[in-house]
């Protein structure tokens, strides 16, 4: 079971998340999209895949900021949790893909383990960010399989 946590201001990361979810389902996984991720409703024995864009000056999209606040304030133990992060960003910003790095750090502070290095997609170069995500996805699937 894979919980997909979406952070998206204008819809690009959400579209990537929909494509990734579809591909994971085709690969035989159950995947649930969370457009308003809530720590209390996510099962830490499942794999969490965060797919987010970056806004402001390295800020999180509005819809995923409350989840980051929950993670920062909450003392709960997430040592059973494995996660991965796909970030969309624009390399003309100094804070390229900072939102995904911030979420990855917050999860690791709670004891969660990253399955892979964050995938950072530069929308300045990638015409279709979902294509880069789908090329990377088999690496994630293989890593999950090894842990099963
Ligand atoms: C106002 C604004 C601020 C942005 N700030 C950043 C930033 O700090 N770092 C970054 O890597 N990308 C930044 N971006 C680029 C977005 O992350 C990128 O366009 C992304 O594809 C938007 O995805 P979304 O439609 O899911 O929100 C910014 C874009 C806008 C419009």
TrEMBL record:
Segment forming the signal sequence: none
Example of a GO MF term: flavin adenine dinucleotide binding
Cofactor dependency: FMN
GO cellular component: cytosol
InterPro entries assigned: Flavdoxin-like (IPR001094), Flavodoxin/NO_synth (IPR008254), Flavoprotein-like_sf (IPR029039)
Family matches, as Pfam families: Flavodoxin_1
Matches recorded under PANTHER family: NADPH OXIDOREDUCTASE A, NITRIC OXIDE SYNTHASE-RELATED
Protein name: MioC protein
Species in which this protein is naturally found: Arsukibacterium tuosuense
């Amino acid at each position: 079971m894979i919980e997909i946590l979406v952070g998206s201001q204008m819809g690009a990361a959400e579209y990537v998340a929909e494509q990734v979810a579809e591909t994971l389902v085709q690969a035989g996984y159950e995947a649930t999209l969370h457009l308003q991720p809530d720590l209390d409703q996510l099962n830490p024995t499942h794999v969490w895949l965060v797919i987010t864009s970056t806004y402001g000056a390295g800020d999180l999209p509005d819809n995923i900021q409350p989840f980051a606040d929950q993670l920062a304030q909450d003392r709960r133990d997430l040592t059973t949790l494995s996660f991965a992060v796909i970030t969309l960003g624009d390399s003309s910003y100094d804070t390229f893909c900072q939102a995904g790095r911030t979420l990855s750090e917050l999860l690791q502070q709670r004891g969660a383990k990253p399955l892979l290095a964050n995938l950072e997609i530069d929308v300045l170069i990638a015409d279709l960010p979902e294509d880069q995500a789908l090329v990377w996805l088999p690496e994630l699937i293989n890593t999950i399989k090894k842990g099963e």
